[in-house]
Amino acid sequence: MNIILLNLLQVSILGIFLIIVSPKIIFGNLQVPEFKKTVCEITINNKENKKIYVEIADTEKKRSYGLMNREEIMIDNGMLFIWDKSEKRNFWMKNTLLNLDLFFINMKGIIVGIYRNAKALDQKNISTNEKVTFVLEMKAGELKSQVGDKLNCPIIKY
User: Of 118, 150, 154, which Cα lies nearest the Cα of 49?
Assistant: First the structure.
């Protein structure tokens, strides 16, 4: 009987520990890549230029980590994923704590697709319909850009 109570106590203590301990502590050993930052502009409806401040995810490690484990993003900030060639891309929101809008951008900088309000922590696959070279992630609802708008970014050669 004492062994059963001891086992129940140990399981209870472990359960409480896992609930209380922050994921930051559990996953604290994950190395967060260092992202370069730059200022870009989105030309909206061929009229208005809106400045956005982006972190650049241009390696496999950076693209895999993306905006995971972030509890907030400043206004007009986001992440720009960059590849060397255009392909259909797949994203998911696992370990992403914020709802995001994803803007799918072709090699000429034109937004060719948008996925609005991707839900935090959702593991549903989000795929592009067209081949893209860039994907911009911004906080959901913040950037009112539409398909056909253009991204202008000094680090990108169109």
Answer: 150
